[in-house]
Amino acid sequence: MGNSLLISGSDTTIAALLVALLSCVDCVPLEGDTLCGAEEPTTYSIVFTGKWSQAAFPKQYPLYRPPAQWSSLLGVAHNSDYVMWKANGYASNGMRELVERGEPWVLMKEIEAAGEKMQSVYGIFSASPVVTGTGQTSTLFEVDPGHPLVSLAARIVPSPDWFVGIENFNLCDKNGWKRRVSIDLFPYDAGTDSGFTFSSPNFATIPRDTITEITCSSPSHPANSFYYPKLKTLPPIARVTMAKLKRKKLGFLFSQPNVTTTDNEVQDSVSETPLDCETSLWSSWGLCRGTCGKLGMKRRTRYVLLQPANHGTPCPDLSEETHCEPDNCV
Span of the secretion signal (predicted)? Predict the structure, then answer.
């Protein structure tokens, strides 16, 4: 007698339940997703505002060759199957090109390839570079209920591999599309270059490190351009504001009066970050000079490594003298 599988009445019920559950797999949101209550695509305006001022970030603030500025902003509307970048994850080759050189093309190709392969991308958007640390740029983008997540990034210029951005931000919840969102941005290190300062020469990190947030105490090195050990947290270095556009009855978009044009200088209240003076170590004592039989004087010096700013601790004396016995006396 051949092998056969017999299903009893109770087994039939279990099998039917399994079939029902399997048929609903596509109905259940993936882990980390929030069920979107919207029914139609919608359009958002996005305004990127640089807050990188010399008052807020006085240490090693780049004034020329090049001055403080931002690369073009690159963003994508997607679902949870696609990851543009993720804190504590590794930067892709495209992200490396964007954050080290400000070149978006490789990352755009990566996004397009992911969209074609997994249907995980709804659209790519970009905004023009900002030629000052405190300027603005803006653009429009569209999301739909199946692709409600937004990720974006912009390079901090100049820097080794530092950038700002948002990852997997959900513009939709069970009540529908969010009307307006404003997010403060803080610097990230992409883990692809080992420079400590804004103007560090290219020095590739091998093997590549993970993407980490830069704080006022991490990396814990006095040479780091964002190292402010007296602060609890860094002030935000940029901000993005996304606003849902209203639609007329015929479907045309209302323009938003608060969407600013590219490179407008922003008049925004900025907290001043005190920067204390930093000096070198003392030099060795110089020769003791004076008349034999009498006390002479010797001198040592130090120099300023970092000028104070914003009412930080002023520089101390840079030279010091003391009494001594004159040298070469017989």
Answer: 1-27
